[in-house]
Design a protein that fits this description.
There is one protein chain. The chain has 160 residues and is an alpha/beta fold. The protein has a single domain, classed as Rossmann fold (3-Layer(aba) Sandwich). The protein has helices spanning 12-19, 26-41, 52-59, 63-73, 83-94, 103-114, 131-143; strands at residues 7-10, 47-51, 77-79, 119-121, 150-152. It has a five-stranded parallel sheet with strand order 3-2-1-4-5. α7 (131-143) links the parallel β4 and β5. The longest helix has 16 residues, at 26-41. It is globular and about 40 Å long.
Length: 160
């Protein structure tokens, strides 16, 4: 009997924590270590996806850091930013659920939702993995006929 693996959309902050220089901030260090642990030990339990947007964001900034992020993302299936996702992201922004200046956050949620992901993995706890934001985004997604994925951090996705 085949086991159906659940689908996970990996947002850019996960790649950043995975490949970033070790921080002096103890909370960031913990996030970096949890991310590395999830990547090494739990990622294989899921079908993982990124989007064109993740690749663009990962390439930004310091050239060598961007190269490290892109190397880790190599071989992961890439989802496109289609009209469904763009329309949904506009609804999130127009309804004030995600600030206009954070349209990329809205696009991550929209792509993962439109593509039927089970989870969206992120360290962005301000606009994405936030219980109050989730509640409002969930309502908007239902209005549009979609089921929003679970928005969570690598720590929340750790196996036994």
């Amino acid at each position: 009997m085949d086991v159906v693996r659940r689908k996970v959309y990996i947002e850019t902050s996960v790649a950043s924590y995975l490949t970033g220089r070790r921080s002096r901030d103890l909370v960031v260090v913990a996030h970096q270590e949890l991310t590395a642990d999830w990547w090494a030990n739990d990622r294989g339990r899921f079908e993982v996806y990124i989007s064109e947007l993740v690749l663009r964001e990962a390439a930004r900034g310091d050239e060598s850091a961007g190269a490290r992020r892109l190397l880790e993302l190599e071989g992961i299936d890439v989802l496109s930013l289609d009209d469904r996702a763009r329309t949904m992201a506009r609804v999130f922004v127009d309804r004030g659920l995600i600030p206009k200046k954070s349209i990329e956050d809205a696009l991550h949620v929209a792509v993962a939702t439109a593509e039927g992901m089970d989870f969206l993995l992120t360290w962005n706890c301000k606009h994405i993995a936030n219980a109050e934001v989730f509640e409002r985004l969930q309502s908007a997604c239902l209005d549009l006929g979609y089921r929003i994925p679970t928005l969570c951090t690598p720590e929340q996705m750790m196996g036994d």
